[in-house]
Amino acid sequence: MTQEVANSLTMILDLAKRAGADAADVLSVESTSLSVSMRLGTLEGLERSESGDLGLRVFVGKKQAIVSATDRSERTLKELAIRAVDMARQAPEDQHCGLASPDEITKSSPELKSDTVDWTAEQLIERVREVEDAARAVPGVTNSAGAQAGWGRTKIHLAASNGFSGSSTRTGYSLSASVLAGEGTGMQRDYEADSRVFAADLAAPADIGRKAGERAVRRLNPRKMPTARVPVFFDPRISGGLVSAMIGAISGAAIARGTSFLKDKLGQKIFSSGVSIIDDPFLPKGLRSRAFDIEGLLPQKRKLIDDGVLTTWLLDLRSARQLGLKSTAHAARGTSGPPSPSPTNVYMEAGAKTSAEVMKDVAQGLYVTETMGSGVNGVTGDYSVAAAGFWIENGEIAFPVSEMTIAGNLKDMFLNLTPANDLDLRYGINAPTLRIEGMTVAGE
């Protein structure tokens, strides 16, 4: 934390106290980003953003208010503090709001590494041109939906009247391409993308482009299959979505409201035996790694699912107090809103068999590479989405399919799930190829 930022945070906490706040915390977010986009070899966008936001949260008794600003002058900070306290006095009481006690906050946090590379616009243009050229060079590719490249750096500083003070820096670098294959109404689109904390870990632009092109060509001439009840496989690009649905269902806010299909399942088996799901805030090079949560608590690596059994909720201080529990240090927020539970790096552990081995006994099935629409009912667990991918016959990928619908209930899907061994920690939430028995697949 620079001395200038530290002085601003100390000043606004002191001003809030003088204005009548019983407690307060302040979040500073400074970010820089640069991105370019290209289509058919022509540069379509070049954007640079530099921002500095500050969010003040104050408490007057059991009332709270949040205000934010970009100006850090003493005059603005004083007005911000007065306005925040006035707002809090008018707010409704919330018996569960409040800062962590001094004995709950972390006194030391692990240092998370970030990159120091600042790509220039010329370097980004070179990379985005290379990724699109490689995609368009694949035989069968007929058009481009565009390619993007970018990088960003975000510095977060948090200080509170309970004595907590902490800082962290995160970097991110990304490349992507989306292309079309075929002609007319038979055109098919697909993509490839990569995002990493360190620039050197990104896949080569030519490899990203080639994969995007090959995937689009592979989807040409899809069929629509008749309705059936068959095993469904989720490609690693989308399998993390099922884990995300589980994450949403174990959020403390949903549990406290009673609006989750897993609200009565703590300590029970909700996945098939052998399945474990990890939340790791300190994962090296993880996209969501963090040294502390936004309420100043020290997170820890947890098995959310241990051998199929649900072990915990994801809790911030407010939802923990509602449930009579302790926070799991999953609080996150921006500068203009209150904290809420949010996961860090989540992944389902890999299984023992390859995806080919998991598939080899399937007479007929569906391998899904894309889903469309938001088809999860968080209250009941009902699941229904439009899907495209490939039909499986006699244990092997046979031909592309599209305009399919897959349906089931997440409670049944979780209990009938088998992971393959191809886990790749490339997203914030990750899972390997997943096989799920007995789903309803509708087409013709």
Give the helix/strand layout.
Layout: H1 3-19, E1 23-39, E2 42-60, E3 63-69, H2 74-90, H3 121-136, E4 141-160, E5 165-181, E6 188-196, H4 205-218, E7 228-234, H5 236-249, H6 252-257, E8 277-280, E9 302-306, E10 309-310, H7 317-323, E11 331-332, E12 340-341, E13 345-348, H8 355-359, E14 364-372, E15 382-393, E16 396-409, H9 410-415, E17 417-419, E18 429-430, E19 434-442
Parallel strand pairs: 7-14, 13-18
Antiparallel strand pairs: 1-2, 1-4, 2-3, 4-5, 5-6, 7-19, 8-9, 8-13, 9-10, 11-12, 14-15, 15-16, 16-19, 17-19
Description:
With 444 residues, the protein is an alpha+beta fold. Among the domains are: 79 residues, PmbA/TldD superfamily (PmbA/TldD fold), CATH 3.30.2290; 223 residues, no CATH class. It is 23% helix and 37% strand. It is built from nine helices and 19 strands. Helix 3 packs parallel to helix 4. The longest helix has 17 residues. The radius of gyration is 24 Å and the shape is globular. The termini are far apart. The mean pLDDT is 96.
